[in-house]
Design goal:
With 777 residues, the chain is mainly β. 2% of the residues lie in helices and 54% in strands. It has a 24-stranded antiparallel β-barrel. Strands 4, 7, 8, 11, 12, 13, 14, 17, 18 and 19 form a 10-stranded mixed sheet that branches. 38% of the residues are buried.
Amino acid sequence: MFTTPRPRPSAGWYRSAHLRGLAVAALSLAMLAGALRLHADAPVEPEENAVPMTAEAPLVVPLTRDTITIDGVLDEAAWQHAARVLLTYETRATDNTPAPMRTEMYITYDTETVYVGWRAFDPEPDAIRARFGDRDRSFNDDYVGIALDTFNDGRRAFQFLANPLGLQMDLTANDLDGNEDEAWDALWVSFGRLTATGYEVEMAIPSRSLRFPSTDGPLTFGFDAFRNRPREQRYTYRSQRNDRNIECYVCEFSKMTGFEELSAGRNLEFVPTLVGTRTDARADLLADELTDGDEDGEAGLTVSWGITPGLNLGVTINPDFSQVEADNAQLDVNNQFALFFPETRPFFLEGADFFDTPINAVNTRSVADPDAGIKLTGKQGVHAIGVFAARDATTELLLPGSQGSDVTRLDGENDATVLRYRRDLGARSNAGILVTDRRGEDGYLNTVVGFDGVWRPRDTDRFSAQLLTSRTRYPRAVAEDFNQPSDSFDDLALRVDYRHSSRHWFGYARVEDVGEDFRADLGFLPRVDFRFYLAGLERIWWGEDYGDDTWWSRFEIGSDWDVTQDQDGLQLENEREIWTNVSLPVADLFVDLRYGSREVGFGGRTFQERFTNLFLRSTPSSTLGFEFFARRGNRIDFVNVQPADQLLFEFFGTVRFGRRVRVDFGHIYDQLDLSGTGIELFTANLSEMRLQLPLTRRFLIRLISQYVDVERNPAVFPDGFSTRTEDLFNQLLVSYKWNARTVVFVGYSDGYEANDRVDLTQRNRTVFLKLGYAWTL
């Protein structure tokens, strides 16, 4: 049992009438032992209960009957008897050298919750980076965290992180594709505080927030405990060694055992929501005034049921899929293919990595406006499954091609279904099947079926492959308007990848073959009718191998070559690229310089292009961080099918004022000139600013402003293109988040537009309210 300091609820956190919707969940923590140093000069002897981690002797996590108050003070009796782990290795910026300062992790559990405590010592406590803000936004702060492989299969892990003030970050790590998903949100409690010698953090992770096998005996979890310490460069301390000759992360985890009495309970979560909006808009920019819109309110309910500790069923009616924060702005000028936007909606994010495959055949943003949905995700033994079905009120279509894509929308709703099954093979390989099906009105259908797998013959090498077949039929109007087949059509898609990753070498190769008539309408595949071949190699040097006075920490030189053809053998691209990059132990600076040349086929012509790219990333101080990208070279003017010269700049930065105010800003400048003449074709500017002001740990104000300005040369562009277009979007959001799903959002947004006929004029304005409450049993 745990409590949180007032005004937080006390002892039965998820049972109390006041907080019964706050915590579904569970996770375990633990850490490795060894020798560590209290500071740079004085070695520290291992504690008596800091047990070394080995495969033969996993960490034993004890049960506690004592109450723990989650307030960032490790003063309860339960911590005195908890298992203790020391973070003894510095794995970044050096290679498994002794950690220069002490970090202690404690772990224990009761029948419903896993508790993790941290003491992070620092010889310069005033330099600790710790700020208030929104969840999942503290990755540039100091933080501590644990990754937990609850199925002990070396494939997938949940990660729980907190900065020194206890602000939460959580994500999943997936060795099957090497990706981390920051969009995943669990229900748990954390609190932290700064001390005279560093900081302390407490975490309470309800068992309902975890997925783990059903068993009557003790459970064994894989785990990794880590600490992030950003200064002149980013340092990482871990409870275990990081072998740079192993091409995976979760597979390296140490082991912990115990949790015999850990129960998932009934594991029921109800999240009723209420969303209210009103939008006033102009029917035409030339209209005198905005037309008042109607108030629109909608109630919804999402129910989540843990059928077993490893299998979860979600059902939603009138679901709240509203996005209360705008997507990051993207510049949509002179692009061949549709832009990709990541998923942000809670229902689809739960267990999203179960649907990941090499070909992006499942992209839940394609389910645009669902009325209802059901989803089953989880793992039982060596079997992993993901199923979802939704009734979508809107049918949006991405129509791909070899040299461009179109987007349209069908009248009427559709039914979307996805089935994913994966079976573990051996210690680190797997095989799976995928089926997607979407059917709508006027005879529309798209079905995709296929197989995929991952094979790791050695620690350093990984092969993955996927073969899909699709069958599609469009309504007659779509077929005629977009030059698509008039009857049912089918085709294949194949992708094979190889990756080698070791301490000094990184190599990769890929083959893709996607037929002209292949479609994956529930995924994101804007290009078809191509064959793609890629091979690349990097050589890596580590500064630590060359002495303490080395001015760089990591240095790379690499090159790759790729060829793209359509199915008839017509060359679409032939590119050669070489690069070098270096990481410096000054201002956490990373510099990447690239040069490339390519021949591109487009519109029946072949274009010769050369380009030079420069990328910089730095955090010069605790208050400032930035990224800068510049590109100078040739690029096709896709509208007029002619060669052009491009100058592109992108700058993104973050400035922090004190512990609360954060400003993120960015600007993109893209200029295209007629090649060799200096005649300007267009100039595009995109500016974005996000101001974040947290008033308390849960109460936050955010202001977003996005502005796009495009000027085109009227002597070059055909009729239908405005000489100048402007778009301005603003959003003010006030949010209160008790946890990831118990929330209150109140906001206002508006949009402005300008063209050749009208100066910047307000197009619409919206006020909205969202209430959500997570109630658990």
